[in-house]
Amino acid sequence: KNGYPTEARADIYFTYNQTVADSMFENGKEIIPPAQIDQDGIVVSPSIVRKDIYASQSIIDNIGYYTNIEIHGEVLTTRPDVDIVKFYPEYEFRIHIGARIGIEYNINELY
């Protein structure tokens, strides 16, 4: 959810001992469009993006070795179609993460 009148960007990093080992987004930061603004430049409706993102094979293979997951977010301070961008304390940028895990196995391989 981007409640700012400017574009926001986010990335999710998997780290091992404080070193970035992998990123959830293979093509760089995920871009979240700006919120809708009125004629005075005040936000009237946040931009909400919901996306299903599949973990790379590298993340799946190494999930047990990562020590942390870091979420990095940034909000741009300019917007090409607006001369003066206004920021207010009630504006917010939120990232929600959920996981859905599917496991397939052959019962004959369990014994």
**Number of E-type strands:** 6
Residue share in β-strands: 25-35%
SSE ordering: EEEEEHE
Q: Based on Cα principal axes, name the global outline.
A: elongated
Q: Summarize model confidence as the mean pLDDT.
A: 91
In whole angstroms, the N-to-C terminal distance is 47 Å
SSE class? mainly beta
The number of distinct helices, counting runs of at least 4 residues, comes to 1
- Taking pLDDT < 50 over at least 5 consecutive residues as the criterion, the unreliable ranges are none
Q: Give a short account of the largest sheet.
A: 4 strands, antiparallel
Q: What's the Cα radius of gyration?
A: 19 Å
Helix content: under 10%
Topology:
Elements lengths: L7 E9 L2 E5 L6 E3 L3 E2 L5 E3 L11 H6 L5 E8 L36
Antiparallel strand pairs: 1-2, 1-3, 1-6, 4-5
How does this model look, in words?
It is a single chain. By secondary structure, the chain is mainly β. It has one helix at residues 57-62, and strands spanning 8-16, 19-23, 30-32, 36-37, 43-45, 68-75. Helices cover 5% and strands 27% of the residues. Strands 1, 2, 3 and 6 form a 4-stranded antiparallel sheet that branches. The chain has a two-stranded antiparallel ribbon with strand order 4-5. The chain is elongated.
Concise structural overview:
Helix content is 5%, strand content 27%.
Key traits:
27% strand, 6 strands, four-stranded antiparallel beta sheet, 111 residues, 1 helix, mainly beta, two-stranded antiparallel ribbon
